[in-house]
Give the backbone structure.
Amino acid sequence: MSNNRELLYSMKILSFMMLVICIVVPSLRICVANDSVNVLQSMSDGERLVSKGGNFELGFFSPGSSQKRYVGIWYKNIPTQTVVWVANGANPINDSSGILTLNTTGNLVLTQNGSIVWYTNNSHKQVQNPVVELLDSGNLVIRNDGEPNPEAYLWQSFDYPSHALLPGMKFGRDLRTGLERRYTAWKSPEDPSPGDVYGVLKPYNYPEFYMMKGEKKLLRQGPWNGLYFSGFPDLQNNTIFGINFVSNKDEIYYTFSLVKSSVVTINVINQTGRTYRYVWVEGDQNWRIYISQPKDFCDTYGLCGAYGSCMISQTQVCQCLKGFSPKSPQAWASSDWTQGCVRNNPLSCHGEDKDGFVKFEGFKVPDSTHTWVDESIGLEECRVKCLSNCSCMAYTNSDIRGEGSGCVMWFGDLIDMKQLQTGGQDLYIRMPASELEKDKTEKDGVNLTTFDFSSISYATNHFSENNKLGQGGFGSVYKGILLDGQEIAVKRLSETSRQGLNEFQNEVKLIAKLQHRNLVKLLGCSIQKDEKLLIYELMPNRSLDHFIFVVICLLNMLYMDFSQSNQMCSVLV
Ligand SMILES: *[C@@H]1O[C@H](CO)[C@@H](O)[C@H](O)[C@H]1NC(C)=O
Ligand SMILES: *[C@@H]1O[C@H](CO)[C@@H](O)[C@H](O)[C@H]1NC(C)=O
Ligand SMILES: *[C@@H]1O[C@H](CO)[C@@H](O)[C@H](O)[C@H]1NC(C)=O
Ligand SMILES: *[C@@H]1O[C@H](CO)[C@@H](O)[C@H](O)[C@H]1NC(C)=O
Protein backbone atom coordinates (compact mmCIF):
# COMPACT_ATOMS: atom_id res chain seq x y z
CA MET A 1 0.00 0.00 0.00
CA SER A 2 2.64 2.49 1.01
CA ASN A 3 4.63 1.39 -2.00
CA ASN A 4 1.73 2.29 -4.21
CA ARG A 5 1.34 5.64 -2.53
CA GLU A 6 4.99 6.33 -3.10
CA LEU A 7 4.61 5.36 -6.67
CA LEU A 8 1.68 7.69 -7.15
CA TYR A 9 3.61 10.42 -5.47
CA SER A 10 6.60 10.00 -7.70
CA MET A 11 4.32 9.87 -10.73
CA LYS A 12 2.92 13.24 -9.74
CA ILE A 13 6.41 14.58 -9.45
CA LEU A 14 7.26 13.17 -12.82
CA SER A 15 4.28 14.93 -14.34
CA PHE A 16 4.99 18.07 -12.46
CA MET A 17 8.54 18.16 -13.68
CA MET A 18 7.26 17.58 -17.16
CA LEU A 19 9.30 14.49 -17.39
CA VAL A 20 7.75 13.44 -20.49
CA ILE A 21 8.66 9.89 -21.16
CA CYS A 22 6.00 7.27 -20.89
CA ILE A 23 7.77 4.36 -19.45
CA VAL A 24 5.98 1.10 -19.65
CA VAL A 25 7.32 -1.25 -17.14
CA PRO A 26 5.31 -4.33 -18.00
CA SER A 27 5.65 -5.97 -14.57
CA LEU A 28 4.19 -2.94 -12.81
CA ARG A 29 1.67 -2.13 -15.55
CA ILE A 30 1.99 1.56 -15.16
CA CYS A 31 2.13 4.08 -17.82
CA VAL A 32 2.69 7.75 -17.34
CA ALA A 33 0.16 9.24 -19.66
CA ASN A 34 2.54 11.74 -21.03
CA ASP A 35 4.02 11.50 -24.43
CA SER A 36 7.11 13.64 -24.51
CA VAL A 37 10.70 13.03 -23.57
CA ASN A 38 12.30 16.27 -22.48
CA VAL A 39 15.86 17.38 -22.67
CA LEU A 40 16.97 15.67 -19.54
CA GLN A 41 15.41 12.41 -20.46
CA SER A 42 16.57 9.40 -22.26
CA MET A 43 15.10 6.04 -23.07
CA SER A 44 16.86 2.77 -22.64
CA ASP A 45 16.04 -0.64 -24.04
CA GLY A 46 12.82 -1.93 -22.44
CA GLU A 47 11.27 1.49 -22.01
CA ARG A 48 8.60 2.80 -24.33
CA LEU A 49 7.09 6.06 -25.43
CA VAL A 50 3.36 5.83 -26.15
CA SER A 51 1.39 8.31 -28.22
CA LYS A 52 -1.32 10.28 -26.43
CA GLY A 53 -4.27 8.29 -27.74
CA GLY A 54 -2.38 5.04 -27.46
CA ASN A 55 -2.17 4.27 -31.18
CA PHE A 56 1.57 3.88 -31.49
CA GLU A 57 4.59 3.24 -29.38
CA LEU A 58 8.30 3.85 -29.73
CA GLY A 59 10.84 1.50 -28.29
CA PHE A 60 13.57 -1.03 -28.95
CA PHE A 61 12.69 -4.16 -30.89
CA SER A 62 14.17 -7.16 -32.67
CA PRO A 63 12.53 -8.14 -35.96
CA GLY A 64 11.56 -11.79 -36.38
CA SER A 65 14.10 -14.12 -34.90
CA SER A 66 16.89 -11.56 -35.13
CA GLN A 67 18.79 -10.82 -31.91
CA LYS A 68 19.75 -7.33 -33.01
CA ARG A 69 18.15 -4.31 -31.42
CA TYR A 70 16.57 -1.43 -33.29
CA VAL A 71 14.66 1.67 -32.27
CA GLY A 72 11.31 1.72 -34.02
CA ILE A 73 7.64 2.65 -33.94
CA TRP A 74 4.81 0.12 -34.05
CA TYR A 75 1.07 -0.08 -33.45
CA LYS A 76 0.46 -0.35 -29.76
CA ASN A 77 -2.81 -2.26 -30.02
CA ILE A 78 -1.97 -4.70 -32.77
CA PRO A 79 -0.74 -7.98 -31.30
CA THR A 80 1.46 -8.98 -34.25
CA GLN A 81 4.14 -6.39 -33.81
CA THR A 82 3.97 -4.28 -36.97
CA VAL A 83 6.85 -1.87 -37.19
CA VAL A 84 6.10 1.19 -39.27
CA TRP A 85 9.33 3.10 -38.80
CA VAL A 86 12.86 2.24 -37.81
CA ALA A 87 15.62 4.63 -36.78
CA ASN A 88 18.83 2.63 -36.99
CA GLY A 89 17.87 0.11 -39.69
CA ALA A 90 21.36 0.08 -41.15
CA ASN A 91 23.13 0.20 -37.78
CA PRO A 92 21.78 -2.36 -35.36
CA ILE A 93 22.79 -2.61 -31.72
CA ASN A 94 23.93 -6.08 -30.75
CA ASP A 95 22.72 -6.03 -27.14
CA SER A 96 20.27 -4.24 -24.90
CA SER A 97 22.62 -1.43 -23.95
CA GLY A 98 21.24 1.10 -26.43
CA ILE A 99 20.16 4.50 -25.13
CA LEU A 100 18.10 7.07 -27.01
CA THR A 101 18.66 10.64 -25.78
CA LEU A 102 17.36 14.03 -26.75
CA ASN A 103 20.26 16.45 -26.46
CA THR A 104 20.08 20.18 -25.79
CA THR A 105 20.38 21.17 -29.43
CA GLY A 106 17.21 19.26 -30.21
CA ASN A 107 18.58 16.07 -31.68
CA LEU A 108 17.81 12.49 -30.84
CA VAL A 109 20.97 10.49 -30.44
CA LEU A 110 21.10 6.71 -30.16
CA THR A 111 24.20 5.46 -28.45
CA GLN A 112 25.63 2.18 -27.38
CA ASN A 113 28.25 2.29 -24.69
CA GLY A 114 29.05 5.89 -25.55
CA SER A 115 29.40 5.51 -29.30
CA ILE A 116 26.81 7.04 -31.60
CA VAL A 117 24.75 4.53 -33.56
CA TRP A 118 22.20 6.90 -35.07
CA TYR A 119 21.17 10.53 -34.72
CA THR A 120 18.80 13.07 -36.20
CA ASN A 121 20.25 15.90 -38.20
CA ASN A 122 18.07 18.80 -37.20
CA SER A 123 20.13 21.89 -37.84
CA HIS A 124 17.58 24.49 -36.74
CA LYS A 125 19.13 27.50 -35.06
CA GLN A 126 16.11 28.39 -32.94
CA VAL A 127 16.13 25.51 -30.49
CA GLN A 128 14.59 26.27 -27.10
CA ASN A 129 13.58 23.57 -24.65
CA PRO A 130 13.22 20.89 -27.29
CA VAL A 131 10.81 18.07 -26.57
CA VAL A 132 10.10 14.79 -28.27
CA GLU A 133 6.58 13.68 -28.89
CA LEU A 134 5.14 10.60 -30.52
CA LEU A 135 1.92 11.67 -32.22
CA ASP A 136 -1.11 9.48 -32.69
CA SER A 137 -0.47 9.55 -36.42
CA GLY A 138 2.72 7.57 -35.77
CA ASN A 139 4.87 10.64 -36.39
CA LEU A 140 7.78 11.08 -33.97
CA VAL A 141 8.46 14.79 -33.72
CA ILE A 142 10.96 17.07 -32.03
CA ARG A 143 9.70 20.58 -31.39
CA ASN A 144 10.32 23.53 -29.15
CA ASP A 145 8.27 23.30 -26.00
CA GLY A 146 5.48 25.87 -26.09
CA GLU A 147 5.79 26.42 -29.82
CA PRO A 148 2.41 27.90 -30.82
CA ASN A 149 2.43 26.48 -34.34
CA PRO A 150 1.56 22.82 -33.83
CA GLU A 151 3.28 21.85 -37.08
CA ALA A 152 6.55 23.69 -36.61
CA TYR A 153 8.75 20.68 -36.04
CA LEU A 154 12.49 20.76 -35.63
CA TRP A 155 12.51 17.23 -36.97
CA GLN A 156 9.89 14.59 -37.74
CA SER A 157 10.13 10.90 -38.56
CA PHE A 158 7.54 11.36 -41.34
CA ASP A 159 10.29 13.15 -43.28
CA TYR A 160 12.36 9.96 -43.24
CA PRO A 161 10.01 7.12 -44.10
CA SER A 162 11.16 3.59 -43.60
CA HIS A 163 9.34 0.87 -45.60
CA ALA A 164 5.81 1.99 -44.79
CA LEU A 165 3.50 4.86 -45.61
CA LEU A 166 0.98 5.88 -42.96
CA PRO A 167 -2.09 8.09 -43.42
CA GLY A 168 -1.09 11.73 -43.62
CA MET A 169 2.54 11.01 -44.42
CA LYS A 170 3.83 12.99 -47.38
CA PHE A 171 5.44 10.86 -50.06
CA GLY A 172 7.25 13.04 -52.56
CA ARG A 173 9.52 16.03 -52.59
CA ASP A 174 9.85 19.40 -50.94
CA LEU A 175 11.14 21.61 -53.75
CA ARG A 176 12.19 24.39 -51.35
CA THR A 177 14.51 22.27 -49.24
CA GLY A 178 15.19 19.47 -51.70
CA LEU A 179 14.01 16.96 -49.09
CA GLU A 180 13.03 13.75 -50.86
CA ARG A 181 10.62 11.53 -49.01
CA ARG A 182 10.94 8.07 -50.51
CA TYR A 183 10.19 4.76 -48.86
CA THR A 184 12.52 1.85 -49.02
CA ALA A 185 12.02 -1.89 -48.62
CA TRP A 186 13.69 -3.74 -45.77
CA LYS A 187 16.34 -6.18 -46.94
CA SER A 188 14.32 -8.96 -45.36
CA PRO A 189 11.66 -9.30 -42.66
CA GLU A 190 14.52 -9.90 -40.22
CA ASP A 191 16.76 -7.15 -41.51
CA PRO A 192 15.34 -3.63 -41.58
CA SER A 193 18.37 -2.17 -43.31
CA PRO A 194 17.38 -0.42 -46.54
CA GLY A 195 17.21 -2.72 -49.56
CA ASP A 196 17.55 -1.54 -53.14
CA VAL A 197 13.82 -1.45 -53.86
CA TYR A 198 12.19 1.87 -53.17
CA GLY A 199 9.28 4.09 -54.11
CA VAL A 200 10.14 7.58 -55.28
CA LEU A 201 8.74 10.64 -56.94
CA LYS A 202 10.47 11.70 -60.14
CA PRO A 203 9.85 15.43 -60.36
CA TYR A 204 9.51 15.53 -64.15
CA ASN A 205 7.49 18.31 -65.74
CA TYR A 206 4.60 15.88 -65.41
CA PRO A 207 5.68 14.24 -62.12
CA GLU A 208 5.34 10.53 -61.52
CA PHE A 209 5.85 7.96 -58.78
CA TYR A 210 7.91 4.90 -59.54
CA MET A 211 8.92 1.75 -57.81
CA MET A 212 12.63 1.34 -58.47
CA LYS A 213 15.28 -1.32 -57.96
CA GLY A 214 18.52 0.60 -57.87
CA GLU A 215 18.42 2.70 -61.03
CA LYS A 216 15.97 0.40 -62.78
CA LYS A 217 12.31 1.32 -63.06
CA LEU A 218 10.11 -1.57 -61.96
CA LEU A 219 6.69 -0.01 -61.97
CA ARG A 220 5.13 3.32 -62.78
CA GLN A 221 2.00 4.70 -61.17
CA GLY A 222 1.35 7.00 -64.08
CA PRO A 223 1.12 10.76 -63.60
CA TRP A 224 -1.69 12.29 -61.58
CA ASN A 225 -4.45 13.44 -63.92
CA GLY A 226 -6.63 15.26 -61.42
CA LEU A 227 -8.64 12.17 -60.56
CA TYR A 228 -6.21 9.28 -60.27
CA PHE A 229 -2.72 8.08 -61.13
CA SER A 230 -3.03 7.31 -64.81
CA GLY A 231 -2.20 3.60 -64.46
CA PHE A 232 -4.61 2.86 -61.63
CA PRO A 233 -8.03 4.39 -62.29
CA ASP A 234 -9.80 1.83 -60.12
CA LEU A 235 -8.21 3.21 -56.96
CA GLN A 236 -10.35 6.33 -57.10
CA ASN A 237 -13.34 6.29 -54.78
CA ASN A 238 -12.27 3.12 -53.00
CA THR A 239 -13.87 2.51 -49.62
CA ILE A 240 -10.67 2.44 -47.58
CA PHE A 241 -8.52 5.44 -48.40
CA GLY A 242 -8.63 8.73 -50.24
CA ILE A 243 -5.77 9.77 -52.50
CA ASN A 244 -4.49 13.33 -52.25
CA PHE A 245 -1.95 14.64 -54.69
CA VAL A 246 -0.43 18.08 -54.31
CA SER A 247 1.82 19.71 -56.87
CA ASN A 248 2.83 23.32 -56.65
CA LYS A 249 6.00 25.38 -56.77
CA ASP A 250 6.88 24.42 -53.19
CA GLU A 251 6.22 20.73 -53.06
CA ILE A 252 4.97 17.70 -54.90
CA TYR A 253 3.61 14.88 -52.83
CA TYR A 254 1.05 12.18 -52.34
CA THR A 255 -0.73 11.44 -49.09
CA PHE A 256 -3.56 9.11 -48.37
CA SER A 257 -6.31 9.76 -45.89
CA LEU A 258 -8.74 7.39 -44.26
CA VAL A 259 -12.32 7.16 -45.46
CA LYS A 260 -13.30 5.87 -42.02
CA SER A 261 -10.96 6.98 -39.27
CA SER A 262 -11.36 3.68 -37.43
CA VAL A 263 -9.76 1.74 -40.28
CA VAL A 264 -6.11 0.89 -39.81
CA THR A 265 -4.29 0.70 -43.12
CA ILE A 266 -0.70 0.90 -44.20
CA ASN A 267 1.21 0.77 -47.47
CA VAL A 268 4.39 -1.29 -47.33
CA ILE A 269 7.10 -1.76 -49.93
CA ASN A 270 8.73 -5.16 -50.15
CA GLN A 271 12.16 -6.15 -51.43
CA THR A 272 10.49 -8.58 -53.86
CA GLY A 273 9.44 -5.52 -55.86
CA ARG A 274 5.87 -5.36 -54.67
CA THR A 275 3.93 -2.89 -52.60
CA TYR A 276 1.16 -4.09 -50.32
CA ARG A 277 -1.68 -2.13 -48.89
CA TYR A 278 -2.71 -3.89 -45.74
CA VAL A 279 -5.88 -3.35 -43.75
CA TRP A 280 -6.10 -4.52 -40.17
CA VAL A 281 -9.07 -6.81 -39.70
CA GLU A 282 -10.09 -6.74 -36.06
CA GLY A 283 -12.25 -9.86 -36.28
CA ASP A 284 -9.44 -11.91 -37.80
CA GLN A 285 -6.79 -10.18 -35.70
CA ASN A 286 -4.81 -10.12 -38.88
CA TRP A 287 -3.56 -7.91 -41.68
CA ARG A 288 -5.33 -8.47 -44.95
CA ILE A 289 -3.92 -7.40 -48.30
CA TYR A 290 -6.30 -4.90 -49.82
CA ILE A 291 -4.25 -4.06 -52.91
CA SER A 292 -0.90 -5.15 -54.16
CA GLN A 293 1.15 -3.70 -56.97
CA PRO A 294 2.08 -4.69 -59.62
CA LYS A 295 -1.56 -5.52 -60.20
CA ASP A 296 -0.90 -7.57 -63.31
CA PHE A 297 1.89 -8.46 -65.73
CA CYS A 298 1.15 -5.32 -67.75
CA ASP A 299 2.40 -3.19 -64.86
CA THR A 300 5.92 -4.45 -65.58
CA TYR A 301 7.73 -1.30 -66.60
CA GLY A 302 8.40 -1.00 -70.33
CA LEU A 303 7.24 -4.56 -71.04
CA CYS A 304 6.05 -3.79 -74.58
CA GLY A 305 8.82 -1.40 -75.61
CA ALA A 306 8.31 1.82 -77.55
CA TYR A 307 4.87 2.28 -79.13
CA GLY A 308 3.74 -1.04 -77.74
CA SER A 309 0.67 -1.18 -75.56
CA CYS A 310 -0.08 -3.81 -72.99
CA MET A 311 -3.50 -5.36 -72.60
CA ILE A 312 -3.82 -8.07 -70.01
CA SER A 313 -6.85 -9.71 -71.59
CA GLN A 314 -4.98 -10.55 -74.79
CA THR A 315 -3.14 -13.83 -75.23
CA GLN A 316 -0.21 -11.79 -76.53
CA VAL A 317 -0.32 -9.04 -73.93
CA CYS A 318 1.78 -6.68 -76.04
CA GLN A 319 0.34 -5.16 -79.19
CA CYS A 320 1.85 -2.53 -81.44
CA LEU A 321 -0.29 0.59 -81.65
CA LYS A 322 -2.29 0.89 -84.84
CA GLY A 323 0.03 2.25 -87.53
CA PHE A 324 3.06 0.50 -86.00
CA SER A 325 4.70 -2.92 -86.44
CA PRO A 326 7.18 -4.88 -84.34
CA LYS A 327 10.73 -3.64 -84.77
CA SER A 328 11.96 -7.22 -84.72
CA PRO A 329 9.15 -9.55 -85.82
CA GLN A 330 11.16 -12.60 -84.69
CA ALA A 331 11.74 -11.30 -81.20
CA TRP A 332 8.13 -10.16 -81.00
CA ALA A 333 6.85 -13.58 -82.04
CA SER A 334 8.87 -15.16 -79.24
CA SER A 335 7.28 -12.80 -76.69
CA ASP A 336 10.34 -10.61 -76.34
CA TRP A 337 8.62 -7.30 -76.75
CA THR A 338 11.23 -4.97 -75.35
CA GLN A 339 12.47 -3.77 -78.75
CA GLY A 340 9.03 -2.34 -79.28
CA CYS A 341 7.42 -1.12 -82.46
CA VAL A 342 8.23 1.15 -85.36
CA ARG A 343 6.02 3.19 -87.67
CA ASN A 344 4.63 1.63 -90.82
CA ASN A 345 4.85 4.99 -92.55
CA PRO A 346 7.25 7.75 -91.62
CA LEU A 347 6.12 11.05 -90.20
CA SER A 348 6.59 13.99 -92.48
CA CYS A 349 6.35 16.72 -89.90
CA HIS A 350 6.74 19.87 -91.99
CA GLY A 351 6.66 17.95 -95.27
CA GLU A 352 4.05 17.99 -98.00
CA ASP A 353 1.48 15.87 -96.20
CA LYS A 354 0.90 17.23 -92.76
CA ASP A 355 0.96 14.90 -89.79
CA GLY A 356 -1.98 14.76 -87.47
CA PHE A 357 -3.10 12.84 -84.41
CA VAL A 358 -5.06 9.71 -83.79
CA LYS A 359 -7.01 9.47 -80.57
CA PHE A 360 -6.48 6.38 -78.45
CA GLU A 361 -8.89 5.77 -75.63
CA GLY A 362 -8.69 3.98 -72.28
CA PHE A 363 -4.94 4.39 -71.87
CA LYS A 364 -2.39 4.61 -69.13
CA VAL A 365 -0.42 7.51 -70.58
CA PRO A 366 3.26 6.93 -71.48
CA ASP A 367 6.29 7.45 -69.26
CA SER A 368 6.52 11.18 -68.58
CA THR A 369 10.31 11.54 -68.41
CA HIS A 370 10.34 13.77 -71.50
CA THR A 371 7.24 15.85 -71.14
CA TRP A 372 6.22 19.46 -71.16
CA VAL A 373 3.17 20.79 -69.35
CA ASP A 374 1.17 23.98 -69.71
CA GLU A 375 -1.80 24.11 -67.41
CA SER A 376 -3.10 27.32 -68.93
CA ILE A 377 -3.97 26.00 -72.38
CA GLY A 378 -6.59 23.57 -73.55
CA LEU A 379 -6.66 20.57 -75.83
CA GLU A 380 -6.84 22.44 -79.12
CA GLU A 381 -3.91 24.75 -78.37
CA CYS A 382 -2.09 21.71 -77.10
CA ARG A 383 -2.61 19.96 -80.42
CA VAL A 384 -1.36 22.97 -82.36
CA LYS A 385 1.71 23.25 -80.13
CA CYS A 386 2.47 19.56 -80.40
CA LEU A 387 2.00 19.57 -84.17
CA SER A 388 4.44 22.44 -84.55
CA ASN A 389 7.29 20.56 -82.86
CA CYS A 390 8.52 17.59 -84.86
CA SER A 391 9.67 15.68 -81.79
CA CYS A 392 6.31 15.96 -80.05
CA MET A 393 4.79 12.50 -80.34
CA ALA A 394 1.63 12.78 -78.27
CA TYR A 395 -0.46 15.12 -76.24
CA THR A 396 -3.51 15.15 -74.02
CA ASN A 397 -5.13 17.13 -71.22
CA SER A 398 -2.92 17.27 -68.14
CA ASP A 399 -6.04 17.33 -65.98
CA ILE A 400 -9.03 15.23 -67.01
CA ARG A 401 -11.51 16.58 -64.47
CA GLY A 402 -14.72 17.83 -66.01
CA GLU A 403 -14.26 18.68 -69.65
CA GLY A 404 -10.51 18.36 -69.23
CA SER A 405 -7.94 21.14 -69.04
CA GLY A 406 -4.25 21.80 -69.37
CA CYS A 407 -1.81 20.38 -71.84
CA VAL A 408 0.87 17.74 -71.60
CA MET A 409 3.07 16.81 -74.54
CA TRP A 410 5.43 13.87 -74.88
CA PHE A 411 8.76 14.09 -76.69
CA GLY A 412 10.59 11.13 -78.13
CA ASP A 413 9.43 7.51 -78.11
CA LEU A 414 6.33 6.64 -76.15
CA ILE A 415 6.93 3.88 -73.65
CA ASP A 416 5.05 1.87 -71.01
CA MET A 417 1.50 2.35 -72.21
CA LYS A 418 -1.27 0.13 -71.02
CA GLN A 419 -4.70 -0.38 -72.46
CA LEU A 420 -6.88 -0.38 -69.37
CA GLN A 421 -9.93 -2.55 -69.10
CA THR A 422 -11.95 0.12 -67.35
CA GLY A 423 -11.25 3.82 -67.09
CA GLY A 424 -8.14 5.15 -68.67
CA GLN A 425 -7.46 8.30 -70.59
CA ASP A 426 -7.50 9.66 -74.10
CA LEU A 427 -4.13 10.02 -75.74
CA TYR A 428 -3.54 11.75 -79.05
CA ILE A 429 -0.63 10.17 -80.87
CA ARG A 430 1.13 11.76 -83.83
CA MET A 431 0.58 9.96 -87.12
CA PRO A 432 1.50 10.59 -90.75
CA ALA A 433 -1.29 11.73 -93.11
CA SER A 434 -1.64 8.24 -94.62
CA GLU A 435 -2.52 6.72 -91.25
CA LEU A 436 -4.93 9.53 -90.48
CA GLU A 437 -6.86 8.83 -93.66
CA LYS A 438 -7.17 5.16 -92.70
CA ASP A 439 -8.18 6.01 -89.19
CA LYS A 440 -10.80 8.46 -90.36
CA THR A 441 -12.54 6.01 -92.69
CA GLU A 442 -12.41 3.27 -90.07
CA LYS A 443 -13.81 5.42 -87.32
CA ASP A 444 -16.46 7.31 -89.26
CA GLY A 445 -18.14 4.58 -91.12
CA VAL A 446 -19.18 7.61 -93.20
CA ASN A 447 -17.82 7.20 -96.64
CA LEU A 448 -17.65 10.52 -98.31
CA THR A 449 -16.28 10.99 -101.74
CA THR A 450 -12.91 12.59 -101.87
CA PHE A 451 -12.92 14.97 -104.79
CA ASP A 452 -9.93 15.83 -106.83
CA PHE A 453 -9.01 19.47 -106.31
CA SER A 454 -8.59 20.20 -110.00
CA SER A 455 -12.05 18.89 -110.85
CA ILE A 456 -13.62 21.17 -108.25
CA SER A 457 -11.54 24.06 -109.46
CA TYR A 458 -12.83 23.37 -112.96
CA ALA A 459 -16.44 23.04 -111.77
CA THR A 460 -16.31 26.45 -110.09
CA ASN A 461 -14.59 28.12 -113.00
CA HIS A 462 -11.42 28.26 -110.91
CA PHE A 463 -13.24 29.84 -108.00
CA SER A 464 -14.20 32.86 -110.03
CA GLU A 465 -15.86 35.87 -108.48
CA ASN A 466 -18.94 35.19 -110.61
CA ASN A 467 -19.41 31.83 -108.95
CA LYS A 468 -19.05 33.20 -105.46
CA LEU A 469 -22.19 32.77 -103.36
CA GLY A 470 -20.97 34.23 -100.12
CA GLN A 471 -18.14 34.81 -97.76
CA GLY A 472 -17.49 34.41 -94.09
CA GLY A 473 -14.59 34.31 -91.69
CA PHE A 474 -14.11 30.67 -92.62
CA GLY A 475 -13.58 31.39 -96.33
CA SER A 476 -15.86 31.58 -99.31
CA VAL A 477 -18.66 29.54 -100.84
CA TYR A 478 -18.85 29.01 -104.60
CA LYS A 479 -21.41 27.38 -106.83
CA GLY A 480 -20.30 25.00 -109.51
CA ILE A 481 -21.33 22.27 -111.89
CA LEU A 482 -19.63 18.92 -111.90
CA LEU A 483 -18.90 17.18 -115.19
CA ASP A 484 -21.91 14.92 -114.68
CA GLY A 485 -24.19 17.97 -114.44
CA GLN A 486 -24.63 17.89 -110.67
CA GLU A 487 -24.94 21.34 -109.19
CA ILE A 488 -22.74 21.88 -106.19
CA ALA A 489 -21.75 24.48 -103.66
CA VAL A 490 -18.16 24.49 -102.51
CA LYS A 491 -16.90 25.84 -99.28
CA ARG A 492 -13.30 26.84 -99.71
CA LEU A 493 -11.50 27.42 -96.45
CA SER A 494 -9.46 30.54 -96.56
CA GLU A 495 -5.76 29.87 -96.37
CA THR A 496 -5.60 31.99 -93.27
CA SER A 497 -8.19 29.77 -91.64
CA ARG A 498 -6.66 28.21 -88.60
CA GLN A 499 -8.73 25.11 -88.99
CA GLY A 500 -6.49 22.09 -88.87
CA LEU A 501 -6.94 18.76 -90.53
CA ASN A 502 -8.50 17.29 -87.45
CA GLU A 503 -11.22 19.90 -87.10
CA PHE A 504 -11.82 19.78 -90.77
CA GLN A 505 -12.38 16.07 -90.57
CA ASN A 506 -14.55 16.51 -87.53
CA GLU A 507 -16.61 19.03 -89.37
CA VAL A 508 -17.04 16.72 -92.31
CA LYS A 509 -18.19 14.03 -89.92
CA LEU A 510 -20.56 16.39 -88.18
CA ILE A 511 -22.17 17.66 -91.34
CA ALA A 512 -22.50 14.17 -92.72
CA LYS A 513 -24.49 13.28 -89.64
CA LEU A 514 -26.57 16.46 -89.77
CA GLN A 515 -28.62 15.50 -92.73
CA HIS A 516 -31.63 17.64 -92.07
CA ARG A 517 -34.20 18.34 -94.71
CA ASN A 518 -33.58 22.03 -94.45
CA LEU A 519 -29.89 21.62 -94.46
CA VAL A 520 -27.75 20.91 -97.36
CA LYS A 521 -26.39 17.51 -98.25
CA LEU A 522 -22.67 17.07 -98.07
CA LEU A 523 -21.30 15.21 -101.05
CA GLY A 524 -17.70 15.06 -100.06
CA CYS A 525 -14.51 16.91 -99.52
CA SER A 526 -11.18 17.63 -101.06
CA ILE A 527 -7.90 18.07 -99.28
CA GLN A 528 -4.80 19.11 -101.09
CA LYS A 529 -1.89 20.74 -99.33
CA ASP A 530 -3.37 23.84 -97.74
CA GLU A 531 -6.56 23.70 -99.74
CA LYS A 532 -9.52 22.26 -97.91
CA LEU A 533 -12.85 22.10 -99.68
CA LEU A 534 -16.28 20.92 -98.63
CA ILE A 535 -18.63 20.03 -101.47
CA TYR A 536 -22.37 20.27 -100.92
CA GLU A 537 -25.27 19.41 -103.14
CA LEU A 538 -27.09 22.47 -104.44
CA MET A 539 -30.70 21.69 -103.82
CA PRO A 540 -32.57 22.09 -107.06
CA ASN A 541 -36.00 22.82 -105.55
CA ARG A 542 -34.78 25.55 -103.27
CA SER A 543 -33.91 29.06 -104.19
CA LEU A 544 -30.32 29.99 -104.35
CA ASP A 545 -30.90 32.54 -101.63
CA HIS A 546 -32.16 29.87 -99.33
CA PHE A 547 -29.14 27.80 -100.10
CA ILE A 548 -26.65 30.54 -99.41
CA PHE A 549 -28.51 31.25 -96.29
CA VAL A 550 -28.43 27.69 -95.05
CA VAL A 551 -24.79 27.16 -95.84
CA ILE A 552 -23.70 30.32 -94.13
CA CYS A 553 -25.86 29.55 -91.17
CA LEU A 554 -24.42 26.08 -90.94
CA LEU A 555 -20.89 27.33 -91.20
CA ASN A 556 -21.45 29.94 -88.56
CA MET A 557 -22.85 27.32 -86.31
CA LEU A 558 -19.87 25.13 -86.89
CA TYR A 559 -17.58 27.98 -86.11
CA MET A 560 -19.48 28.65 -82.93
CA ASP A 561 -20.25 32.13 -84.12
CA PHE A 562 -23.62 32.07 -82.46
CA SER A 563 -24.06 35.83 -82.58
CA GLN A 564 -24.59 35.53 -86.29
CA SER A 565 -26.09 32.10 -86.45
CA ASN A 566 -28.83 32.96 -84.00
CA GLN A 567 -30.44 35.59 -86.20
CA MET A 568 -29.90 33.73 -89.39
CA CYS A 569 -30.75 30.26 -88.30
CA SER A 570 -33.98 31.17 -86.57
CA VAL A 571 -35.64 31.11 -89.97
CA LEU A 572 -34.73 27.47 -90.33
CA VAL A 573 -36.46 26.20 -87.28
C1 LIG B 1 23.26 16.75 -30.37
O1 LIG B 1 23.37 15.70 -31.34
C2 LIG B 1 23.74 16.11 -32.62
C3 LIG B 1 23.75 14.88 -33.50
O2 LIG B 1 24.62 13.91 -32.99
C4 LIG B 1 25.10 16.78 -32.60
O3 LIG B 1 25.41 17.25 -33.87
C5 LIG B 1 25.05 17.93 -31.63
O4 LIG B 1 26.34 18.49 -31.50
C6 LIG B 1 24.59 17.45 -30.25
N1 LIG B 1 24.45 18.56 -29.37
C7 LIG B 1 25.05 18.57 -28.18
C8 LIG B 1 24.82 19.77 -27.34
O5 LIG B 1 25.71 17.63 -27.81
C1 LIG C 1 32.42 0.15 -23.65
O1 LIG C 1 33.43 0.93 -24.23
C2 LIG C 1 34.65 0.91 -23.50
C3 LIG C 1 35.59 1.89 -24.16
O2 LIG C 1 35.60 1.76 -25.58
C4 LIG C 1 35.20 -0.51 -23.49
O3 LIG C 1 36.37 -0.57 -22.72
C5 LIG C 1 34.15 -1.44 -22.87
O4 LIG C 1 34.58 -2.78 -22.92
C6 LIG C 1 32.84 -1.33 -23.58
N1 LIG C 1 31.83 -2.09 -22.90
C7 LIG C 1 30.99 -2.92 -23.54
C8 LIG C 1 30.00 -3.62 -22.67
O5 LIG C 1 31.02 -3.11 -24.75
C1 LIG D 1 7.53 -9.67 -48.88
O1 LIG D 1 6.24 -10.15 -48.95
C2 LIG D 1 6.13 -11.53 -48.77
C3 LIG D 1 4.69 -11.90 -48.99
O2 LIG D 1 3.86 -11.08 -48.23
C4 LIG D 1 6.57 -11.90 -47.37
O3 LIG D 1 6.52 -13.30 -47.19
C5 LIG D 1 7.95 -11.42 -47.19
O4 LIG D 1 8.28 -11.65 -45.87
C6 LIG D 1 8.06 -9.97 -47.52
N1 LIG D 1 9.43 -9.54 -47.51
C7 LIG D 1 9.80 -8.48 -46.85
C8 LIG D 1 11.23 -8.11 -47.00
O5 LIG D 1 9.03 -7.81 -46.16
C1 LIG E 1 10.55 20.84 -79.38
O1 LIG E 1 10.38 20.64 -78.01
C2 LIG E 1 11.57 20.22 -77.35
C3 LIG E 1 11.23 19.88 -75.93
O2 LIG E 1 10.51 20.91 -75.30
C4 LIG E 1 12.56 21.36 -77.43
O3 LIG E 1 13.76 20.96 -76.80
C5 LIG E 1 12.83 21.69 -78.87
O4 LIG E 1 13.65 22.80 -78.93
C6 LIG E 1 11.51 21.98 -79.58
N1 LIG E 1 11.77 22.15 -81.00
C7 LIG E 1 11.27 23.16 -81.68
C8 LIG E 1 11.61 23.20 -83.13
O5 LIG E 1 10.58 24.02 -81.15
About this structure: The radius of gyration is 33 Å. Residues 22-160 form a domain with the Agglutinin, subunit A fold (CATH 2.90.10.10). The longest helix spans residues 2-16. Residues 1-34, 560-573 have pLDDT under 50 and may be disordered.
